[in-house]
Design goal:
This protein is an alpha+beta fold. 34% of the residues lie in helices and 45% in strands. It contains four helices and eight strands. 25% of the residues are buried. Pfam families: Pyridox_ox_2. This is Pyridoxamine 5'-phosphate oxidase family protein. InterPro entries: Pyridox_Oxase-rel, Split_barrel_FMN-bd.
Amino acid sequence: MTDLTTSECTRVLRDNFIGHLAFISKGRPFVVPITYYFDPTDHTIISYSAEGHKIDAMRKNNSVSLVVEEIRSMTNWESAMLSGTFEELEGSTAKQQLHQFTQGVKGLLLKKEDKEVEFISEFSSKLYSRGIPIVYRINILDMVGKRREA
């Protein structure tokens, strides 16, 4: 195994859209899968969620981690982990970041899977039916990563 450089970690984040978000709630760690978008302009992670356990916990303790993997086989993979802080967005900033998230994830899906997708708008409409989505970003404090190639 070898360490990834910061630029290699950034590439793993930039080229993917699903990761595992870690946060603390009532003194216990939780890890949940999320869909995210890496914003190359300000090097942050953009995501959104309905109100609930995850958002409540991150409001109380804004320290989070995100792990993203590219697994090609058991002996050929890369993994990047970032540590950062949760920041809830509001108003026009939230709307703009949610638009950027949607366009970014659609672009990645088109590039990786060579197809247009409708699930984001369907997911968004389901999320809106549960209330206004909470748009947030993760301000990255540091990144580390590993690679295994056989």
